[in-house]
Amino acid sequence: MKRLSRFFVSAVAASVVASPISAQLLPGPVGGVVGGVVGGVTRTVGGTVSGTVGGVSNGAADGGRTGGAVGGLAGGVTGGLSGATGGALGGVGGLVGGMTGSGGMGSTGALSGLITRNGIPVSGFTPNPLNALAIPPEVYDAPPQAIADYRLARYRALVSANRATLDLDPDGQPVRKLEVIATNPDATSLVLAARAGFQVTGDELEPNLGIRMVTLAIPRKMNVRRAVQLIHRAAPAMIVDYNHIYEPSGSALLPIAGAVLASSPRHRPRKSQKVAPQPVRGPTRIAMIDGGVASHASLARADIVQQGFAGDPQATGHGTAVGSLLVGEQGPFRGAAPGSQLFVADVYGGNPAAGSVSSIVRALSWAASKQPAVINISLVGPGNAALARAISAVQARGIQVVAAVGNDGPAAPPQYPASYPGVVAVTGVDGQGRALPEAGRSGHLDFAAPGADMIAAYPGKGFAIVRGTSFAAPLAAARLALAGSYQRVAMEARPGKGKVGRGIVCGQCRVDPKTLRGK
After folding, report:
1. Which of 78, 95, 129, 419 suits a disulfide with 88, CB 3.0-4.6 Å?
2. CB 75 within 8 A of CB 98
C-alpha cells in the first residue's frame, strides 16, 4: 500500500471525528472514512485522496454505507492516491467511492461518474459497456454487503443515464418509466384500468407461449410506483407488474462499434406476425437470450440465427462470449457444444436501457418456436409476473431453461429467472473448483460450471479473459442440451468447494487463458 501523506492522515483523522457512522462502517484501513465521509459530505470531485472521492449530496447516509463499504474498500485502499482518474472501484456517482477512468473498474466495465443528487448521479456519468468481461478483484473481493450495494448503485447509474425512459421500482430495480404490463387481462379489468386513467398502448399475443401482453401507459404526472398501487386498487383481478429491465448478469450493455454479427441480421417480426414452429431435424438446437453475437473466427463454421427484439440485433462482447462458449471452435479453444445450431435473441439492440420484460417475453416466444433443447439466459433481475408466466409456458413445451444466478453476492436478493421453479440455476467456480465469492443466490441452486480463469471469444480482439456466472451458465446449458436430461447431467457433476449445488459440470470445458494467452 502506498505511503500516506501527512495531509491524507490529517484528513482521515478529521473525518473520523466528523462522522462516527462512517468510522463504524470502515471495511479497510482508511477506505470507509474516505469513501463514506469525504465522498458523502464534501462532494469532492477528482480529489487527491481516494482517486475520485465520490460526492453524494444526500450525505453520509448513502455515502457512508455504500461509499464506505465498497468505494472505501477499493477506492481508499486499492485505488489509493490515483488522482483524478479515480480509485479502483469508484463512486457510482459517489455511491461507490472513486471510479477509475483508466484503470481498475474503469477498464473492466464499471460505471463512471462523480456527483449525485438524492443518491443518483447527475454529471459525468455513463453506464459501463458490457464489452469488458472480467469482474475486477475490487468487486469480488469486497464484503458481501458491499457487492450488494454496488448492484443498487449500478442500477441508479443506469436510470440516471436514461432518465427519459427509466425509473426505479420500490426495491431499487430499474423499470420502464411510463408504462406497466398486464398479462392475460380480462375485458372487465381493462375497462376498470381505463377508468383509472390507464391507456392501452400495446396489445401483443405470443402464440408460442399462449400469453397476451398488454402495455398500459400510466396516468400523466404520476410516477410508475404510484401507478402500480393505483391499478392494483382499481383492477384487483388483473395481473399487472412493472416492465422491469434485466441486465447481463453483473453488467450493463453497449454495442461494439463496427462489429459485424455472426449471421445476417433478421428483422424483428411485426407484432401481429406469427412465427410458425419448425420441425426439428439435424443438429442439437440451443437458444440464448442475451445481446447479439459478433462475427468471430471461432464462430466461422457455426450455424447461428439472430433475431432482434429491441431493434435490429447488435453485436456485443457479452453475447459473443456466451455464444462462443456454446458453439465456438478455433484451435485449442472449444465451446461446450460445437456443431449445435444456435438461435440468438437479442433483447438489447445495443441499448443498456433495453432488456425489458416485454422484450424478453417476445424473445422467449421466438426461441420456443425454434424448438431448442435448452434456452440459456445469462441475465438477472427481479421476479416479474409476465416473465414468470413466460418461463412456465416455455417449460410446458418441454424446453429446459438454464439461467445464471448473477454476480451481486450472497447478500443481494435472489435473482430471476434463475429462482423460478424448474429453471436450472447455475453458479460459477474458478480454476480450483471454488465457488465464486461474488456469485449471487437464487431460490435454489442446481449446478456450478467454470466461470473464472478462462477465456471466451471477443469481437476484434481474439479472446478475452472472462469471469462471472454469465459464462458458467452456457457451459451447463450446453451439457444439458447434449446429455438430453437433467438426471444425466447430475450424474456427471463433481464435488467442488463452497456452494456448487449438485456439483460442477463441464469442468473440462474451461479453456485456460495461458492456452491462447488471452488478454
Report:
1. 78
2. yes
